[in-house]
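Entry 14. Ran structure prediction on the chain below.
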Amino acid sequence: MTETAAPRTPLSPTPRSTPTRLTDRARIDRADLDAVLDAGLICHLGVLLGGTPVVLPTSYGRDGDTLYLHGSTGAGNMRAAVATDISVTVTLVDGVVYARSAMHFSMNYRCAVVLGRAREVTDHDERLHGLRVIVDHAAPGAWSRVRPPSKKELAATKVLAFDLTEASVKVRSGGPQDDPSDIDNGGVWAGVLPLRQTWDTPIDSADLDPGVRVPSDVLERAAG
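Output, structure tokens:
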């Protein structure tokens, strides 16, 4: 018998994660959330430090409906992330939208915002799993060929698990939305300047042993 996967909760299940402006750009399918998180490399972690809001770039990795984050055990943002609610944002810019009026200039983008409270991972096996998810998100396949973290390294690392239940996604695509009067006047170029991120040729470490070659998965990633 084939088991049917449990249905996933639609996005924006709470008032604070429900978009209130430009709602036509909102997405409610969790596949859209997965796609944004999987395509990004860096999230921005928003925390309160001493009553001051701080937003910091942080590496992450997704496993199902859990986002794993990591940082130094001495980092204040990591401690704050388990003491109060936080936000995690991932934004991908796909292009600049040129309009005929300054007011209608925009950007095509995909953006995910997740709210909630992170859980510090204390179980040894889950900590290693979370770190593997993070490493393999940034560098797919790398974990299996490198030395795993030592006890000392693990002791200096805090791993957080962040549930993806309370999340929202907004996407803008397409051309400018100029006023009819500006379109009628003409004479000004309007359109989209697409933006894409590409990998460059891998660069060997200066202290690399002779004969060690770039792994095939890195070459394939660089080739696109």
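The beta strands are 26-27, 42-49, 52-63, 66-72, 86-98, 106-116, 119-120, 157-163, 167-172, 191-194. Will compare against last week's run tomorrow.
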